[in-house]
Amino acid sequence: MSFSSFPQAPLPHALAPYGWDDAWAAEFAPYTAEGLVPGRVVRVDRGQCDVMTADGIVRADTAFVTPHDPLRVICTGDWAAVEAHGSPRYVKAYLPRRTAFVRSTSSQRSEGQILAANVDHAIIAVSLAVELDLGRIERFLALAWESGAQPLVALTKADLVPDPVTLGHLVQDVEGAAPGVPVVTVSSLTGEGTDVLAAVASGGTSVLLGISGAGKSTLANTLLGEAVMEVQEAREVDGKGRHTTTTRNLLVLPGGGVLIDTPGLRGVGLFDAGAGVGQVFSEIEEFASQCRFHDCAHEAEPGCGVREAVDSGALPERRLESYRKLLRENQRIVAKTDARLRAELRRDWRLRSAEGRANYSAKRSGRA
Q: pTM, whole model, 2 decimals?
């Protein structure tokens, strides 16, 4: 019997290194029938995008996928349906996203901005060259959990903290702000922790997030094994970095998986991330379940489980204040886009105002 009589395993799809799988193929079937070809968006820039197809990179126009809703514009990481021929070639549609990392814009319109699509891991880069901002880390984590991706905190430039005791305290502080999230110390100079990140990134699509100067591009180059991303030195005055990456780029890693490197984020506004906030502060919500009143504001109510946790030292006051701040911010963002919730907030404000006026009148008349 010849070897040719044995069943042959199907050849891997050319887009498999970019994350293509049977589930994506099944979703794309209707577009195949229309003569369109699949590809993953590796870069978007001013109405054009670079799409990796089975035949290589295609420069395509996004005129057909640029709706008024900023959350529905095509984004790095999307799986696109591209015309097989033509000049220019157009992206006609993209597949429904499995996950999406969205933040609120810095404008007064409070619109959402999608940063990356179809992401499995969100690697939040935090530089140890400057003072830790735990509140910002919690903010990034809330967005990461809300996106549907699994977050990880990478403490970069660990070689700048030679004292192991000091480094251990910094790690503990971050772990306290990131319950249930892996925290890895990383140094692109010494190679510390890069093997852990490479192992995580090999399991799908990862996005690198952080402010300017966090070492994202250096970390990306380390994972890629070559200097693909441009890197600039941080300012000596304050240790802050300069913007190096200006677009979101999707890159295939040599050890498997793909990486999306993003520009440094000046603002990290929440956008309808209530579930993400709850995940970041899961211990507070657990303490809140022990409150006597279900609508407890955790201020001075009797039987408040949260205040009891603060008084006993089980919950740092900083965590509670950060939790309140993010909840208020998220509520404002949602209220601007949700008429029903906006009406409820206005009604609540009116009731509280009326109650305050009544209490004031009672005190003035001696009835309090």
A: 0.81
Determine the residue type at 106.
Answer: S
The percent of the chain in helix, strand and coil, each rounded to the nearest 5, is: 40, 20, 40
Name the β-bridge partners of 52.
40, 57
- On whether the CB atoms of residues 284 and 274 are closer than 8 A, the answer is no
Q: What amino acid occupies position 226?
A: E
- Which candidate, 37, 31, 34, 73, places its Cα nearest to that of 52? 37
Per-10-residue mean pLDDT of the chain, 368 residues long, equals: 49 86 95 96 92 94 86 93 92 95 66 88 95 93 92 96 95 95 94 94 93 88 76 48 61 93 73 83 91 86 92 93 89 68 63 64 60
> What are 189's two structure tokens?
């100079």
Q: CB within 8 A of 289, min separation 6: which ones?
A: 305
Residue 53 pairs with which residues in a beta bridge?
39, 56
Residue recorded with tokens 């001075």: 300
Residues 238, 239, 242: CA angle, nearest 5 degrees:
105
User: Domains in the chain, ordered, with CATH?
Assistant: 16-94 (2.40.50.140), 100-261 (3.40.50.300), 274-364 (1.10.40.50)
Side-chain-side CA neighbours of 73 within 13 Å: the count stands at 23
DSSP string, 143-191: HHHHHTPEEEEEEE-GGG---HHHHHHHHHHHHHHSTTS-EEE--TTT-
Which residue shows structure tokens 């996004």?
62
Nearest to 234 by CA among 126, 130, 134: 130
SS3 category, 241: coil
Q: How far is CA 145 from the centre of its chain?
A: 7
Q: What is the dihedral of CA 77, 78, 81, 87, to 10 degrees?
A: -60
How far apart are the C-alpha atoms of 197 and 214, rounded to whole Å?
A: 15
Residues facing 252 on adjacent strands: 258
Q: Do residues 62 and 91 make contact, with C-beta atoms less than 8 angstroms apart?
A: yes
Q: Which two tokens stand for residue 257?
A: 């998986």
Residues in the chain: 368
Cα separation, 293 vs 315, in Å, equals 19
CA torsion angle 133 134 137 143 (round to 10): -120
